[in-house]
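@channel sequence for tomorrow's demo:
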Amino acid sequence: MSSKPRSNTSEIARYAGLGAQIFASLGIAVFIGYKADGWLHTSLPLLVWALPLAVLIVMIYKLVKDTSKRKNTNAN
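structure tokens (generated this afternoon):
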């Protein structure tokens, strides 16, 4: 089966959406970490660093998983 090639604008929109999703997720994680550190009265801002790092790891895993799956379906 032949699939229709994607246009450049749809690729740009997809990556722009992914960038916005990463930016928003990291911003929310920093905000939640800041509030949680304030609520727990920690002297070291541990959650401000840990939550965005966890979000970044999950987003990279999702990106690798999605792109490798797409690459394998195109090869068949």
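heads up for whoever presents: Residues 12 and 26 are 21 Å apart (CA to CA).
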